[in-house]
Every structure is written in C-alpha cells, then in structure tokens.
Amino acid sequence: MHSKIYNCQNCHQNFQIEPEDFTFYDKIKVPPPTWCFDCRLQRRFANRNERALYKNKCGLCGLSVVSMCAPDSGFISYCQKCWYSDGWDAINYGVDYNFSKPFFQQFFELQRKIPRINFYGTNNQNSDYANNSWNSKNIYLSISALDSEDIMYSRAVDKSINCIDCLHLTNSELCYECIDVDKGYKSTELIESRNCIDSQFLFDSANCTNCFMSSNLRNKEYIIKNKQYTKEIYQQEIKKFDIGSEALFSKLKNQFVEIAKKSLHKYANIIKANNCTGDAISNSRNIKNSFYVFDSEDSKNCLRGHHLKDVYDANNLVHSEIVYEGNNVGFGGYNLKFITNVVTNVSSIEYSDSCHSSSNLFACIGLRNKQYCILNKQY
Q1: If you compute the radius of gyration of the chain from its CA atoms, what whole number of angstroms results?
Q2: Second label for 274, Cα 20 to 30 Å away, from 12, 153, 207, 232?
Q3: Tens of pLDDT along 297-324?
C-alpha cells in the first residue's frame, strides 16, 4: 500500500497517511482518520483540563473540594474518597441504546448524568491540589506527578523528590526551575540536561558536578562560564554568586538566556533510541512524531508516554499496548480506542470515559470492575 493524501475535515488542509499507518488501522479495525495530526492533537488537548480549578462541593458527602468542574458546569462532582467508594455505582445510570438517536447525542447525555471525579489520579496522599497525579505524596499545585513526593508548582514530574517550579523532570531531587532534566540533584536552572549534581544554570549538559553558568558540557567538574577551575579556586569564585539574592538571581537568569541562545542546539533530544523522530525520546525504537516518550516501541503521534507498544494518537499514557486516540491511559491498558481517563487493568474498551479495572465496554462512563456493558447497561 502507498501513501495517500487526505483533506482534513476540520481545518481543510491536506495531510498524508503512510503505509505503516494503514497497517496499524487494519490491525485495530478502524478507518483512517479524517482529521489531520494537528487537529487530532488539539482535540485531545481540549479533553484534558489541567489548570482550570474551582471551589466546588462534593455531590455525595457535601464537603468543599477543589475540582476540575465549575459549580455552574452542569456536572456533578464527587471528591476522590466518595467517587471511589461503594456509596454509588455508575452501572445504575445505564440506559438502552436507542437506534433512532445519534450515538454521540446519547453518549453526551450519559456524560451529563454521571458524577465526575474532582481530580484524576489515585494513591495520592496530602495532595488536594494535584491534578492528573498518581502514586504521589505532598503534591501542591502541580500537574501530572507520577511516583513523586514533595513537589510544588510543577508539571510532568516522575520519580522525583523535593522539587519546585520544574517541567518534565525525572529521577531528580532538590531541583528548582529545571526543564527537561533527568537525574538532577541539588541543582537550579538546568535545561535539557542529565546526571548533573550541585550545578546551576546549565544548558544541554550531562554528567556534570559543581558547574555554573555553562552550556554543552560533558563529564565536567568545577566549571564556571565554560572555563575550567581547580576545586579550590572554584569554591572561592562560586561564593561571589549569591543566587539567594532575588536581584542577582534575576540578572543571572537573563545572562543564562543569552548563553543558551548562543549555544549549540541538538536537532532533538533523542537518547538510546533507534529509528525515532520527534523530541525527548529515550530507550525506545520505532517511535514517530512523538514527544516525551520513554521505554517504548512501535508508536506514533504520542505525547508523554512510558512503556508503550503499538500506540497511535495518544497523550499521557503509562504501560499501555494497542491504543488509538486516547488521553490519560495506563497501568495495564490493552486494546483501547477513543477513550479518556481509562486506567488500571483495562482492556477492549471503546468510546468510554473514566472507567477503571474493566473490560469489554462500549460508550461507558465511570464504571469500575465491570464487563460487557454498553451505555453503562450490563449485558
């Protein structure tokens, strides 16, 4: 089969579908997409509320909660304790499929009836202001924290401790204002760096210790502004930079911006990967047009994923296989299509929302530990 050009039904721009894409669509038994990649991505973004938070009341226990649902949204919002409790069951909202009405109209009507959880995520402690976070503790005003602890004002932080104001951070501790960093320790203002310790203001650096205001370093120690010092002189010079001073810190940040602009920039941050395109990809193979994907293979058009296989057009996934058009999926997902917020040992689910530990569902919302349901009705 050859590549084909299609016209997007949304933006009316032409887009191309490759032969390997048709192979995937045949495998999962869906027709080729009618929207281009950009429009499909925007549609998934619109389905994930990260930052719009509201004071609301739990519709079951009546306690005040912070919620993704505004009080006037028309949705009923439950706190996490109530939503996961036995005090209600989404199966009781089940309806018969009406062949005389459009499918999406019926699906939308069901969505409006079923209570929504105030925040997505499970196994979190002391994290009342943490959205889309999992297995974490002491997370405050942060989004998408995974297996982390003591995180504030950050997004996309995995397996990290005691970090503030960070973006896309993994396996790190005691970091401040770091972006795209792996294995950072006791460091400030690192960008696109890894394995750096006791360092500040580094761009595209790796395996560095006690380095300051530099870029493109590899396996270095005691560096200031890309100049080598002895340990003794470095310790003397670094005392001149009081980054605890807000005025001086602001000046140093401006200097760092200029240094980063003039530095060498890699075409993409792809490490230990084979046949991959996109950015921020590591330990993977056959990953196409994807970003922030790790330990994965044979996937395309993905954003932020860990341990994926045969996944197309999906955002925010962990341990998932054979997924198409998904958002917030993981922890044992298999054979999923057109789904959102479907997690924890789920399989063979289509057009569903907020279902957990279930299989063989179609157009269902809020179900837990269920099988063979359509529009939340048990069959």
Answers
A1: 23
A2: 207
A3: 999 999 999 999 999 999 999 999 999 9
User: Using an 8 Å Cβ cutoff, are 229 and 237 in contact?
Assistant: yes
Residue 102 token pair = 């459009």
The pLDDT-based confidence of 244 (bands split at 50, 70, 90) is confident
d(CA 281, CA 313): 16
Q: What is the pLDDT of residues 263-304, one digit of tens each?
A: 999 999 999 999 999 999 999 999 999 999 999 999 999 999
Q: How far apart are CA 2 and CA 140, in angstroms?
A: 50
Residue position matching structure tokens 């401006």: 254
For CA atoms 318, 320, 323, 329, give the dihedral sign.
negative
Cβ-Cβ contacts under 8 Å for 232 (sequence gap 6 or more):
none
Q: In the beta sheet, which residues pair with residue 291? A: 279, 303
DSSP state for residue 119 in the 8-state scheme: S
Beta bridge partners of 26: none
Confidence (pTM) = 0.92
DSSP reduced 3-state for 22: helix
Q: What sign has the CA pseudo-torsion 48, 53, 54, 60?
A: positive
1 C-beta neighbours (distance < 10 Å), count: 11
Residue 1 has pLDDT above 90, yes or no: no
Angle at 82 between CA 137 and CA 143, to 5 degrees: 35
For the chain, the residue count is 379
Q: Residue 49: its pLDDT value, please?
A: 87
Transcribe 178-209 into DSSP letters: -EEEEEEEEEEEEEEEEEEES-EEEES-EEEE
C-alpha to C-alpha distance for 140 and 363, rounded to whole angstroms: 34
Tokens 């470095």, residue?
A: 234
Burial of 328 (0-12, 13-18, 19+ CB in 10 A): buried
Residues whose CB falls within 8 Å of the CB of residue 205, separated by 6 or more in sequence, listed in order: 190, 193, 196, 199, 211, 214, 215, 216, 217, 218, 220
Question: How far, in Å, CA of 264 to CA of 235, rounded?
Answer: 27
Nearest Cα to Cα of residue 353 among 362, 365, 335: 365
For 106-138, what is each residue's pLDDT tens digit?
999 999 999 999 988 888 999 989 999 999 999
Residue 331 has pLDDT above 90, yes or no: no
C-alpha separations of 24 from 19, 21, 157 in Å: 9, 5, 31
CB-hemisphere CA count at 13 Å for 58?
Answer: 18
